[in-house]
Amino acid sequence: RRAPQPLAPLRSGPETDRPLPAPHCYCSSSSPPRPSPAAQSPARGPAALWEKHISIQRQLAELEKLAGLSEGEFTLAVSLKTDLHKPCPLCPEEKFKACYGHKLHRHLQNLHWKISVEFEGYRMCICHLPCRLVKPNLVGDQTFSKMGAHYHCIICSATIARRTDMIGHINRHVNKGETESRFITAPAPKSSYQVLKESDTDVQVLPNYSTPQKTDSYFNPKMKLNRQLIFCALAVLAEERKPIECLDAFGATGIMGLQWAKHLRNSVKVTINDCNENSVTMIQENCHLNKMKVKLNTKEENNDEALGGGEQNTDTIEVTKMDANVIMHMRSFDFIHLDPFGTSVNYLDSAFRNVRNLGIVSLTSTDISSLYAKAQHVALRHYGCNIVRTEYYRELAARIVIAAVARAAARCNKGIEVLLAVALEHFVLVVVRVLRGPSPADDSAKKVRYLIHCQWCEERIFQKEGNMVEENPYQQLPCDCHGSMPGKTAVVLGPLWSGALFNTGFLRRMLFEAVQYGLDETQPLLKTLVCEAECTTLKNFSTHGPYDENKQEECGVYIKTPDTSAESCVLHGKKNNEVVRNTAKRQKSDNSAEHPAFYYNIHRHSIKGMNMPKLNKFLNYLSEAGYRVSRTHFDPMGVRTNAPLAQFKTILVKYSTPTYTGGQAEGPLHLTEDVHMGDQVPAAADTKSEDSQCNQWFNQTTTLYIIFKEHKYSVNSLQHEHEK
Questions:
Q1: Which residues does 62 contact at the CB level (< 8 Å), separation at least 6?
Q2: Alpha carbons 158 and 147: distance in angstroms, whole number
Q3: Phi, psi (5° rounding) for residue 615?
Q4: DSSP-assigned letters across all residues of 292-340
Q5: 419-434 pLDDT, tens per residue?
Q6: Which CATH class is domain 223-447?
Q7: I need a surface site. Which of 159, 406, 689, 702 has the fewest CB within 10 A?
Q8: How far apart are CA 331 and CA 353, in angstroms?
Q9: Contact of 429 with 368, CB cutoff 8 Å
Q10: Can you tell me the distance from the alpha carbon of 713 to that of 724, in angstroms, rounded to the nearest whole number?
Q11: Taking a C-beta distance cutoff of 8 angstroms, is the pair 96, 88 a contact?
Q12: Looking at the domain 600-658, which fold is it?
């Protein structure tokens, strides 16, 4: 292919000999009226900086000066009839011919200045010059494209055709924090960061901090509850052994690690990691903002000036820039938190590779579309689980994540003890304790089982242990939908975690830490989790154990204060195998009183035409029937109980009251016009001193009439039947 030939600088023709403008016309505001092509070409220095385009000016007078117009000159020239024809500096000759000064003034004002885009005191006026070269043609020559009106970006020198697109282009620069211009004559000040405060910790973020795809400093205020739960779990671990090394593998703004270091201080050694360079810079600035010392590459940063004249803080935070898998393979930690954007299955193997014995691994999964059965193929791809949408889909999501965690830990000869599992609207949080050894790994792997789910009544049960194929797996379900309904009625889900989702003792200690650090938003959730772990109602909530002297009451709930000094001495004085043996014994004793798996939604199983009882009253009815019962955080109208679905519905129907569907509202009962008892109603009301059986008979007759009205029973026949 032939190399492209340079474009001829002059046009031939009898009309004009004015040279063509260069591909990019750049000059300063004090440049001559019509600069030469050499002067208009980009001026690249050693720093690769550009001069601003002639269409970017601060005032209209500067734009008129480019056209050779001075203030008051065109009015004087018109009066003296000495006005000369002058061309427009932003339009080619064929688009706007040279004209008198007063016409050129109106042209610049109306067609260039008024439709400009303003940014940081500068106006990016519309330009009609052929400022962009096209690709070489078949001959190899470069020609100007037929380009219409366009704008030149003051920040990146891009050429944008439409004004609305230019405004959006500038806004994207601002959201990314790119407000410093490349031009020598147009430096723009840096954008001020927005400072947010959470739990006495300040973080500065970019204006678009809520969009993870477009920013390096992603911060979600809705995850505050998640951060507080993780902090409480770390605070409990910090009471067991000091100091502990903890890792925030995906720092973003670093707010989680800053909260750990600011409140727990010398009890923890915090490491905040992120693979993005801009995020690492942001984390360092946030450390300085909270008066924390930063440690980079095993060298402590001398940031006395960054700390300012305020109170000196001896806390040091290590900030690293590497992949999360790399740092977890290289170093050992006592506490690891994973909060990637989406699924966390890609980091589980490295997380359990070097985590210390009896350490804690917490992970936050935000891929709720796959976990909540909205994208079932993604759940099969990431977690290897077959799921469908059920009434207990949130607990199903938590058990899916725990099953993936258990399999990853077993590959590293480690078992897990689930301490906490929370599934809310925006995330699924799982906190597990690591138990080293092949025996705990085998015990954890055995708890990953399949679930049989009936698609008609939504009854469910875990498959029995063993590898033998059953002749009729429908017999395991408590319901008889397979015999009464045509076709296949059940589906196999999983594999899922079939063990407990909570550790009662750990949750009580988390509640104590939440009270101690004043985390008011977390306390109601932790109280619900404790009740759910024990499968009891809030009225029966109490602390059982030999350490009753360490109990304190908070908002009607007993909280046990852990004896941290004795426990810490015991942990440090024992051998590792003895600690693991005692932990396994504690886990086995806790499993003896495990909470029932899954829950029922009272609205899903309500009877049509019946008013179901209040939820708290219904819990009492189930408890009086001899079943374990509690509310659940997974569903505000969910009931966790060991009662079968048939007994659940029987008790629900027993204590439900009929609803009059013929326009009757809630409240006192009113008879309709077709009830032929008008004479009996006042009689029953006036003769209150008579036998009470009359009122009772009247109420029963009215109730029977309302129930059987649809079956066209008359009041007389009901009365006749009642008399019999």
A1: 29
A2: 14
A3: -65, -45
A4: -EEEETTEE---HHHHTTS-----EEEEE-S-HHHHHHH---SEEEE--
A5: 999 999 889 999 999 9
A6: alpha beta
A7: 689
A8: 10
A9: no
A10: 16
A11: yes
A12: Phenylalanyl-tRNA Synthetase; Chain B, domain 1 (3.30.56)
CB 426: neighbour CB atoms within 10 A?
13
Nearest residue to 511 via CA among 553, 456, 464: 553
Give the model confidence (pLDDT) of 150-198 as tens digits.
Answer: 888 888 888 888 888 888 888 888 887 777 766 544 444 444 577 888 8
C-alpha 117/C-alpha 114 separation (Å) is 9
CA nearest neighbour of 29 among 159, 183, 153, 155: 183
Please state, in angstroms and rounded to a whole number, the distance separating the CA atoms of residues 69 and 671: 92
Would you state the structure tokens that stand for residue 397, as one six-digit string?
């999501």
- Please enumerate in sequence order all residues whose Cβ is within 8 A of that of 638, keeping only pairs 6 or more positions apart, or say none: 392, 599, 600, 601, 602, 631, 632
Cα gap 168→187, rounded to integer Å? 20
Residue 230 makes CB contacts below 8 A (sequence gap 6+) with 256, 337, 362, 364, 429, 431
Distance, CA of 416 to CA of 410 (rounded, Å):
9
133 φ/ψ angles, rounded to the nearest 5 degrees: -85, 145
Separation of CA 151 from chain center: 38
**Torsion over CA: 548, 554, 557, 563 (sign):** negative
Q: What is the DSSP letter of 99?
A: B
Other CB atoms within a 10 A radius of the CB of residue 428 amount to 24
In this prediction the pTM is 0.64
Indicate the domain borders of the chain.
37-175, 223-447, 600-658, 680-723
Residue identified by tokens 């690249």 is 44
- If one counts every other C-beta atom within 10 angstroms of the C-beta of residue 567, the result is 13
**CB–CB of 414/436 below 8 Å?**
yes
Tokens standing for 575?
Answer: 């051998």
Measured at the CA of 403, the angle between CA 399 and CA 404, to 5 degrees, comes to 120
